[in-house]
């Protein structure tokens, strides 16, 4: 076991493995050795070089330990080749030992594998659906005319972000910020042109676990507490080489780093569920990604809905995470002045066109050099957004635009012009709105052309100057790591999480009251019913069919909304390779089974003995098993339609129609179905469930309508059964229901695979 010490990283790795990779945490080779002088004075965080104490537990294959060193992280890098080979010592220090020794100081964020992000000439367009037209053709034949139109969202965006930097993407609504950050994160590929590279390599699936993505809407389970959310994420995302106690400890470290101790035992909450505040929920979402120590962290509008103080606190957390070697890219709409000057780099978009890329603190000077400057003190972000929309109110303009500005002002107030100019102004035929539109277009035209001539060439030269990434850094990020935990471990963790999330729905008082209330009502209506006449037999058959209706409906609607409600969470977690899809699907089914079994059991215990069903142990057990089969098959049907449609409103509507068809062809309302639609009853699980319950409760040997003259009649000869159903057997219906229950779930799984994991 050897120890690599490089720029603040000290990692033990096995030299006998088939590959030996070295990790480096910055772009400056500073030859920091294990014995850092203890008397060196720490520098100010806001100075040109931040002195950080890095607590490192790097999660890449075959790395088995870490050490703590003091590192200087410079704010700028000039070349990827400044990673120099470092000497290797034979000192060993494991994760748990070092942590127990308390060797963790300020700045507990782990130093990740450095990844430089480059994007060159990125353009993106979407296809717009145009209503199809029918054009008359020769000989009175209409021709279907297809029109394909595209809308350009992004236009040739170029730049680079290196480790220890935080890039903010600004722009007005609709400028393409969210689309651009999704492209950079590898979550949007259709309609994209240009090249995005990570350490000079294209995106591969191996990068998934090195990328953290925080969506604009916090996608977390609302019923879980903050601590439960992070612990479950740690158990799923951290490597199997770590023990369960270490994973929990890691989650607690992140909670402390993000300042979530006060609310860690509170529910996350959501739209309809009270929980933590918006800032706390956003920090929990960020902690969810920081657990795995990502090299690249993407955040979509992290400060939306937060007050300025909470947003500043959140940016401080992100700034600290960037300075340990992480590359952070975020979209932000309108930051305060204090937030604005925290950004290392700024990309300003206007209608998909870049109009500035560079240091945030240099943005005002750049636009002043073009002749655009605020006439009074204002937030730099407000000034930049006004320019990005072409709005020049309260802004000093370059000389080339002053005449057009004067014309626009004169359209509102002609008296502003000199006497000799009023005649020319009166000849302007364009109304004020059109003139304002033309003026904003001229402003944007100048800004875009200035970017092309002044900023873009310099950025391209900087990308060339930084050089090619060393091969060992490229090799590390291409390693396709196995799942962080086994299938069985994922199953137990996901099942536990799902059960905690849904337990309140499972044991809801309303559901319990519904099952008990309906059971008592049916028991009273069919109190100790007997089978002595044809009418009484029909009543008993009607009760059995109603039981099929009740539990078919309950089971379908209890499961049809599960996948549509969780599809975005599923897509997010699968994009991070948290677990296998099969684990999620089986866990979802498994967690729903207890409630699907509990309420039918309570229901049947009440109805069975009140309604006077067959009072034998075999009949009771077989009846319960038949009801369970109906419920589980109905659950499978609900999962299938929920996974196939993935829309709550549409799924509810379609399932209602399908359920109506199943009930009408179930064998009670219509006995003789026309031949051309007779096939419908063979795909109805209600049909087989109803027949199975009848065979369990009745047998050919039973008699009714006994009299001294004619004797007793066999139930098989009853008009309710004769020529319709053979009361012998029941195994066929049971096997068909089992096959349907499994088949619908397999179909649901196949449709779940269609969910795009990047959306």
TrEMBL record:
CDD domains: ABCG_EPDR (cd03213)
Coiled coil: none
One Pfam family per UniProt: ABC2_membrane
Keyword terms of this UniProt record: ATP-binding, Chloroplast, Membrane, Nucleotide-binding, Plastid, Transmembrane, Transmembrane helix, Transport
PANTHER family: ABC TRANSPORTER G FAMILY MEMBER 26, ABC TRANSPORTER G FAMILY MEMBER 28
SMART domains found in the cross-reference section: AAA (SM00382)
Spans through the membrane: 509-529, 541-563, 625-645, 651-670, 734-752
Membrane topology: Multi-pass membrane protein
Source organism: Ceratopteris richardii
SUPFAM superfamilies, per the entry: P-loop containing nucleoside triphosphate hydrolases
Cell compartment(s), UniProt: Membrane
Record family assignment: Belongs to the ABC transporter superfamily. ABCG family. Eye pigment precursor importer (TC 3.A.1.204) subfamily.
GO MF term (any one): ABC-type transporter activity
Protein name, per record: ABC transporter domain-containing protein
Main location: membrane
Region (Disordered): 27-49
GO cellular component terms given for this protein: membrane
Limits of the ABC transporter domain: 117-376
């Amino acid at each position: 076991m050897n120890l690599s010490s490089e720029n603040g990283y000290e990692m033990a790795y096995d030299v006998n493995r088939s590959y030996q990779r070295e990790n480096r945490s910055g772009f400056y080779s500073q030859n920091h050795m294990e014995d850092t002088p203890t008397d060196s004075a720490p520098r100010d965080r806001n100075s040109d070089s931040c002195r950080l104490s890095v607590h490192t537990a790097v999660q890449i294959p075959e790395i088995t330990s870490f050490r703590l060193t003091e590192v200087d992280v410079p704010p700028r890098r000039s070349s990827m080749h400044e990673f120099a080979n470092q000497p290797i010592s034979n000192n060993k220090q494991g994760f748990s030992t070092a942590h127990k020794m308390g060797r963790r100081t300020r700045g507990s964020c782990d130093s990740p594998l450095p990844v430089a992000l480059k994007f060159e000439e990125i353009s993106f367009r979407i296809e717009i659906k145009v209503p199809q037209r029918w054009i008359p053709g020769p000989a009175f034949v209409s021709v279907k005319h297809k029109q394909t139109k595209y809308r350009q969202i992004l236009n040739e965006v170029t730049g680079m972000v290196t480790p220890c930097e935080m890039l903010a993407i600004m722009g007005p609504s609709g400028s393409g910020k969210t689309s651009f950050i999704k492209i950079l994160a590898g979550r949007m590929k259709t309609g994209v042109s240009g090249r995005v590279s990570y350490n000079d390599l294209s995106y591969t699936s191996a990068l998934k676990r090195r990328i953290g993505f925080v969506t604009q809407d916090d996608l977390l389970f609302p019923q879980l507490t903050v601590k439960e959310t992070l612990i479950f994420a740690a158990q799923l995302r951290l490597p199997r080489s770590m023990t369960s106690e270490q994973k929990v400890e890691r989650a607690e470290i992140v909670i402390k780093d993000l300042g979530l101790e006060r609310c860690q035992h509170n529910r996350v909450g959501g739209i309809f569920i009270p929980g933590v505040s918006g800032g706390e929920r956003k920090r929990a979402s960020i902690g969810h990604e920081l657990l795995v120590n990502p090299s690249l962290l993407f955040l979509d509008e992290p400060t939306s809905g937060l007050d300025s103080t909470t947003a500043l606190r959140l940016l401080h957390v992100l700034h600290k995470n960037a300075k340990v070697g992480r590359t952070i890219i975020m979209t932000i709409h309108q930051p305060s002045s204090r937030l604005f000057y925290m950004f290392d780099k700024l990309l300003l978009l206007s209608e998909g066109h870049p109009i500035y890329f560079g240091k945030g603190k240099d943005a005002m000077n750049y636009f002043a050099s073009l002749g655009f400057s605020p006439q009074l003190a204002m937030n730099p972000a407000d000034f930049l957004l006004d320019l990005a929309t072409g709005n020049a109110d309260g802004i000093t303009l370059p000389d080339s635009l002053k005449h057009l500005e004067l014309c626009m002002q004169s359209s509102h107030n002609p008296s502003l012009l000199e006497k000799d100019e009023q005649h020319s102004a009166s000849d302007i035929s364009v109304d004020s709105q059109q003139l304002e539109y033309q003026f904003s277009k001229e402003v944007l035209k100048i800004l875009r052309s200035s970017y092309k001539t002044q900023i873009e060439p310099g950025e391209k030269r900087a990308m060339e100057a930084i050089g090619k990434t060393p091969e060992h850094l490229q090799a590390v990020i291409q390693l396709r790591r196995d799942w962080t935990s086994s299938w069985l471990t994922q199953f137990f963790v996901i099942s536990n999480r799902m059960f905690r999330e849904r337990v309140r729905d499972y044991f809801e008082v309303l559901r319990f009251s519904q099952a008990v209330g309906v059971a008592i009502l049916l028991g009273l209506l069919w109190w100790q019913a007997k089978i002595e006449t044809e009418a009484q037999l029909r009543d008993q058959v009607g009760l059995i069919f109603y039981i099929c209706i009740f539990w078919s409906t309950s089971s379908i609607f209890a499961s049809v909304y599960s996948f549509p409600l969780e599809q975005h969470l599923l897509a997010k977690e699968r994009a991070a390779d948290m677990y296998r899809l099969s684990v999620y699907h089986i866990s979802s089914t498994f967690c729903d089974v207890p409630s699907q079994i509990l309420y039918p059991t309570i229901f049947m215990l009440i109805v069975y003995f009140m309604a006077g069903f067959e009072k034998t142990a075999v009949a009771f057990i077989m009846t319960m098993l038949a009801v369970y089969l109906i419920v589980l098959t109905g659950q499978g049907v609900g999962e299938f339609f929920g996974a196939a449609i993935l829309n709550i409103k549409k799924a509810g509507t379609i399932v209602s129609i399908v359920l109506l068809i199943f009930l009408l062809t179930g064998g009670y309302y219509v006995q003789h179905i026309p031949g051309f639609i007779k096939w419908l009853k063979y795909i109805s699980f209600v049909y087989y469930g109803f027949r199975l319950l009848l065979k369990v409760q009745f047998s050919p040997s039973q008699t009714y309508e006994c009299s001294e003259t004619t004797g007793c009649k066999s139930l098989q000869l009853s008009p309710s059964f004769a020529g319709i159903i053979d009361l012998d057997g029941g195994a066929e219906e049971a096997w068909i229901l089992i096959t349907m229950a499994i088949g619908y779930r397999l179909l649901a799984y196949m449709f779940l695979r269609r969910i795009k994991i990047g959306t």
